[in-house]
Amino acid sequence: MSFPMPSKSSAAEFLRILRERGFLHQCSDPADDLSGLAGAAPGGLLTAYVGFDATAASLHVGHLLSIMALRWLQRTGNRPIVLIGGGTTKIGDPSFRDTTRPMLDDAQIAANAAGLRRVFGQYMTFGDGPADAVMVDNADWLDGLDYVPFLRDIGRHFTINRMLSFESVRQRMEREQPLTFLEFNYMILQAYDFLELSRRHGCLLQMGGSDQWGNIVNGIELARRVERRELFGLTTPLLTTASGTKMGKTAGGAVWLNADARSPFDFWQFWRNTEDADVGRFLRLFTELPLDEIARLEQLQGAEINEAKIVLATEATRLCHGAAEAEKAAAAAGSPFAPGGDGLPEIALRREGTGGVPLVDALVAAGLCASKGAARRLIREGGARLDGEPVTDEAAALTAIAVLSAGRKRHIRVILTP
């Protein structure tokens, strides 16, 4: 995969794009124009990383801001590092969590890490060139650490007082929720990652979500104390929709990026259902459209705003799943009842005896409703459809292949098996 390069290639150009498109939330550079960070990059070219723990087999839409930041880093001629947290996953990041993360064994972590790696090839080019992305696993250096020497050489630079001052920790303490010694170590290990990447790869910048600010600052301070290295941190904003919900959360759960966890069609539909007030912001963050074209699209009113939503859905799906899948999803959404479906997701359900499948059960099994109660409400309110026609009988059943819909935007083809 190759990228059309912008006219300028530099750290300064990358930082300008982040600011213009709304990625920038916090930066450790005290200069308003980020000239300190830009000037510290050797030859004006920047190496930066984002870490992703292997807590699930797929990343989700909540990770996309960081992934898009890495993509823009590469597009401006700089070098991105993707860090897979094979080591830190064994500890669990306590940042802004109410409970300790479940402990995963080595086999689960390895399987999850393999799932995470699949998505990055869609967004970045990996290789040995000066601007090629690099993928590393922190288990390579964390798993072999000797505990006592590590505590002596690294742990002495951290104080419990400082750790307790971070907002993510303070909230847990105020709620009187347990925070284990194991979780305290996570901050030290992430800080050590930053120092190790600066040694191995000349990494100058760590990026992440705003919930990672405390962990990032720890790494900056550790490098300064241990080796007098000047490193930098940058965070992206915590995104919520115009209605106040957390970005990427739906009634059906997380919006996964891997196709085997969420189909390209459903991924397309997620973006197509964006609230009107969010369209312009999401176009800037999750597509590479020129800003003047985005400005035109976000000015559309009434029914015309659907044009902008279709562009957003298609462009976001193209980046994640490729142009062919994006076009199939757009075509299927435009004509969901066409013969063959052309990309419409399918589910096979077993008939009950010689009859069909109760509509209530089918809505739940297809993921269109979270429970049978929700399915019954959808039917009563006229939101359930078979082949485009409303169904209001809660006792109705599917007896043949049909397109099952929740509202006018979410569709799935149901195939009945003996």
From TrEMBL:
It comes from Azospirillum lipoferum (strain 4B). Residues 358-395 form the RNA-binding S4 domain. The keyword Cell membrane does not apply. One of its GO terms (cellular component) is cytosol. A motif ('KMSKS' region) lies at residues 246-250. L-tyrosine binds at residues 49, 186, 190. This is Tyrosine--tRNA ligase. Homodimer.
